[in-house]
Amino acid sequence: MKQLSFLCFLIFVLASTKGQVAQQDTARVFQLIEAANEKQQQGLADAAERDFRKAGELAKRLNFDRGLLMFAGYYCVFLYHQIRYEEAMTMAELQLEVSERIGDKQRIGYAYNNISLQHQAQGKLQQAAESLMKALEISSEIESPTPRDLSDRRKYYNNLSSLLLDMNDLKKGKEYAVKALEIAEQLQDTLAIGWSLINLLVAEAMAGELADAEKHGMQLLAVGQSQGDAEMELKAYNNLGDIYRMQKRYPLALETFKKAQRLLAKAPPGNEVYILMGISSVYNGMKQYGQANTYFDRARMLAERELAKPQLIELYLSGAEIKEAMGNYKEALALRKQYEQINDSLRNQETHNAIQELEVKYQTSEKEKALAERDLQISKQRGELERKNKWVILSVSLVAISVLLWVFNRLISRQKRKTEATEQANRLLEAQLRGEEKERARTARELHDGVASILSAAKLHINARPGGDTKTDLLVGQLIETAVQEIRNLSHNLAPERVLNDGFEQAVQEFCRRVNHPGLQLECYVVGVLPKLDKDAELLLYRIIQEAVTNIVKHAEATEGIVQLVGDGPRLSITIEDNGRGFEHDASKSTGLGLKNLASRIQLLKGSHEVRSAPGKGTSIYIEIDAATAMQLTDTGLETHFSG
């Protein structure tokens, strides 16, 4: 029994010891990676690489995916800075493989970002963009991003901006730089703001927006100095120097580049080449070609070891100009060819591949070499001709599109102005109608509550007067009653409470009944079921009918008239006819204020109307309203107040 207990205890101790050893080994992976990063910052590249390799081998031996993932990511960055892009690509692909295996989406995004950087450095800009867009897609799928997620997204936007600027797409390059800057400002991350400013000012400088570029360059310099970041400060001086060169402020440009030189000891390797390139370009601008050539040769020696392919374009172009100015045409031509080869590879891969095939044939023999050179020249001429034709077609197309867009924009602007004028007129008409309704309501109240009440009181006093002339009193009472009735009719016309209380149909019929008198027989007909209208629309239609009928009474000298309401689904048709004297309709278009008011009110209801008249043949007005449209008459409504 004691032996069994001792055996169990021994197994437990061995298992615990094994677990502790495994834990210590995995911790060792992280320690090695951390040590490698520190040595890299100190410029001890060989020592850093040894620690990275040890970390990777240990992580693989332990099957420690998290350690392997961290190793692949950091070692990829190390190799990238060492201009070892193929090896860095292998590490980025390992990073992607491991992160997909363990389902870590955030680090899948990191892997795609690293793959994109290697493609970009090798001039494979299309593949770089595809990988970077995958990283951005992963970032955009996060519904509630944390500050870390937003920081990653900012980095992807900034890298995409850099990539687009390499492709000379200044508009989109600037757009993504602005997006990166907005996220950095949202996070209140000062260093991130600085790194985002770099691409923004580069885009502005490339686009010739030098004042904005200079402003952002000074802002970048302030960030670098406030944060004690020598590399950021150096990049600010470099970019400002280039901006001053483009502004032809050459002495200030040289002074600025020298300030950048003084920071080289504090900044990581790889920055000197940009300073040398900048100084060379300044001397070239000043036409001091000897000085320019000296700095160019120094820059070229470093650049071909330290710079990625896209960054070599401007160097070779500037060098070709300098060599040509010095009369060294052979080197100038060689540099120009190098420039064109890289430029074509970035922007026309198919043409580049075709030239490479011709160069292989050229090396087979002297005879084939001569033929290949001839074919190459023909191919170049054909390619140049095709390129020119494409540019001509593109230019003509762009001009045509620009003209069409200009014409379309003018038409849209004109239509917009007409629409705004119509809407303004409608708003003014609505305001006028609201004012009229208020005034009518006030007048109706005064007539009903004031004058009618006074006359009714007078009638009561006359009837109650003792000893009066009964016949005279009766006559006066009848006259007062007639006046009261007229005032009530007038107040009802001014404030048609029936429209709100009894409905539009009953209000029109009641109005026609009140207008009827021995000299004018006015009939009102309702056909079908009238569509339901907004109260404001009903009131406006009532006023239209009221004004048309009032014109019949005052001006038409008619003995008969008809008001007909026809309901047909959502449509309402209104016909108002009389047998009066009529008028010359064409002449009324310029002088008839009543018809203009009628047309304006119907337009407010988005309806249509037709007026037919001739001297001696009466007048006919036909109105048609769509109930669905008329119900959207106004957002505020016509303000109305009716007395009892």
UniProtKB/TrEMBL annotation:
TM region positions: 391-408
Residue windows of the TPR repeats: 234-267
Coiled-coil regions, chain positions: 329-382, 412-446
Keywords on record: 4Fe-4S, ATP-binding, Coiled coil, Cytoplasm, Iron, Iron-sulfur, Kinase, Membrane, Metal-binding, Nucleotide-binding, Phosphoprotein, TPR repeat, Transferase, Transmembrane, Transmembrane helix, Two-component regulatory system
Cofactor(s) essential for the protein: [4Fe-4S] cluster
Keyword Metal-binding: yes
EC number: 2.7.13.3
Enzyme type, top EC level: transferase
SUPFAM superfamilies linked: ATPase domain of HSP90 chaperone/DNA topoisomerase II/histidine kinase, TPR-like
Residue span(s) of domain Histidine kinase: 442-629
UniProt subcellular location: Cytoplasm
Matching CDD domains: HATPase_UhpB-NarQ-NarX-like
Reaction catalysis annotation: ATP + protein L-histidine = ADP + protein N-phospho-L-histidine
A Pfam family matched in the record: TPR_8
Domain of life: Bacteria
GO cellular component, one term: cytoplasm
Keyword Membrane: yes
GO MF entry, a single one: ATP binding
Function: Member of the two-component regulatory system NreB/NreC involved in the control of dissimilatory nitrate/nitrite reduction in response to oxygen. NreB functions as a direct oxygen sensor histidine kinase which is autophosphorylated, in the absence of oxygen, probably at the conserved histidine residue, and transfers its phosphate group probably to a conserved aspartate residue of NreC. NreB/NreC activates the expression of the nitrate (narGHJI) and nitrite (nir) reductase operons, as well as the putative nitrate transporter gene narT.
Name this polypeptide is given: Oxygen sensor histidine kinase NreB
Organism: Parapedobacter luteus
